[in-house]
Amino acid sequence: MLVVKSLDVDINGTPILRDIGLTIDNGEIIGLIGRNGAGKTTFLRSVMGLIPVNAGSVLHGRDEINKLPGYKRAHMGFGYMPEDRRLVPEMTAEQNILVPVWSTGIEDFQSRLQWIYKIIPECQKFRETPATSLSGGQQKLVALARALMVGKNLLLLDEPTEGIAPVLALRMGEILASLKAEGVSIIIAESNDAHVADVIDRTYVIERGSIVSD
Known about the structure:
It is a single chain. The chain has helices at residues 40-47, 70-75, 93-97, 99-104, 109-119, 121-125, 136-150, 166-181; strands at residues 2-11, 14-24, 29-33, 55-60, 63-64, 78-81, 154-158, 186-190, 202-207, 210-213. By secondary structure, it is of the alpha/beta class. It has one domain (2-213): P-loop containing nucleotide triphosphate hydrolases (Rossmann fold, 3-Layer(aba) Sandwich). Strands 6-7-8-3-9-10 form a six-stranded mixed beta sheet, sandwiched between helices. Strand 7, helix 8 and strand 8 form a beta-alpha-beta unit.
């Protein structure tokens, strides 16, 4: 489904990723595990098209998508959940979830929204709550739901369980297990896999911008 080969990425002239390779098949959940600063976020943003790559290739099926901008990858069904959530504070939870609908013109979004509420019923309960009134863990759930709205082919999740209460981290693991049962393809970047180990099919370990084991 997605094949990353020999990816090199610099930011402001500083090498961040070197010779990164990773594959994920349809319905597979991959863990990208590494310490803070190892290059996990840069990798996800590069796959999403938010950071240009210096060398290497990103293949979706038979198509090389290196030069496609991020919004085009959203149109291809890539959903991205950033570590810091990036919710729009002036909007309600549901309005934040629907941002990809307005930006990509998703048709029949109501059925997709109801499917998301089935997977994450918490979001339906506080759908009318302003984003600024949600806890950090609740905001993570909304950010995941927003990524799911567009991420029909691939989800890229950056530290989904980091910085939230243990009970919500466990709940996030349960949600990811539900998505696994639904056959959703996911790359999960985490500092450790304590709460997601049970749902991960394969793990890549990243250190100093390079894959050191898989």
